[in-house]
Amino acid sequence: MLDPVDRVEVVDRYTVRFRLKEPFVWLVNMLANPTGTWIVARELVDKYGDLKRPESAIGTGPFVLDRYEPNVKTIFRRNPDYFRPGQPWVDGVEWLVLEDDSAGLATYRTGQIDCGPWHWWVVRQQDLRLAQEERAPPRVPGLPVQRDHGHLHADRQAPFNDVRVRRAISHAIDRQAVIDAVYLKGEPTPGDLPGPARVVSAHRPARPGRASTTATIRKEARRLLAEAGFPRGSRRS
Question: How far apart are CA 74 and CA 192, in angstroms?
């Protein structure tokens, strides 16, 4: 993530200068990325030698590690010194290790845990229909919010510099087929994230003017390509 960084120089007490091997516009993004660029307290490294011990999990987050039981659970309590006043809104969080999927589902449905026991705190795909059909209150699972997207260069490179070509490609992608074939079952939605109303209603009507059939979508894609000067697709192989 930080391979383009050659070295870091101290300018003064509150300033550092990053020297790069090459232009790297994503530097600020990488520094803010929680995947691997955490702010580490130096005193912890001095004390423990590395960050492998649970006691070294100290940062600026809303919770403080209270107890860690390997392969059982991890307990966090509210950080009284959190930098956002009034937050967090809960006194603590317990993360349980639930290796058995059936036991995890039963624990969720009986209200012993507040979030789904699978990845992203949801119910497994094969268990979702059963949980929805039973409607066992108060643990009725909703649809998880998972964002996946593709990018197209909108620069000077043809044919993608023509908005009609980009729209044609968007029309030609069968999102429901992708969901059904290779990923979690769900709903293809527009670029806006579901709001609170989404939690109440599992479905919402399609937007006015939205193509309703695959044939209509493909027809619109062909029309846009022809209008952009590519009646048979791109001239480039």
Answer: 34
**29-35, Cβ contacts within 8 angstroms, sequence gap of 24 or more:** 30/1, 30/2, 33/1, 35/1
Mean pLDDT in each 10-residue stretch from start to end of the chain (237 residues)?
Answer: 94 96 92 81 88 84 93 95 93 93 88 85 77 55 59 76 88 80 63 47 40 71 90 60
Measured CA to CA, the distance from residue 142 to residue 175 in angstroms comes to 20
C-alpha 49/C-alpha 63 separation (Å) is 23
In a domain, 122, yes or no: no
Domain count within the chain: 2
Q: Residue 217: inside a domain, yes or no?
A: yes
User: 55 in a domain, yes or no?
Assistant: no
3-state secondary structure at position 129: helix
Residue 78 lies in a domain: no
Distance CA 40, CA 59 (A): 7
Confidence (pTM) = 0.55
The sign of the dihedral angle between the CA atoms of 33, 37, 39, 40 is: positive
Mapped onto helix, strand or coil, the DSSP state of residue 12 is strand
Residue 134, both tokens: 């039973």
> Long-range contacts of range 132-138, CB-CB < 8 Å, 24 or more positions apart?
134/109, 136/109, 138/111
Alpha-carbon torsion, ordered 187, 192, 193, 198, to 10 deg: -70
Q: Which domain holds residue 33?
A: 1-37
Q: Report residue 202 as tokens.
A: 């599992």
* CA-angle at 103, arms to 98 and 106, nearest 5°: 120
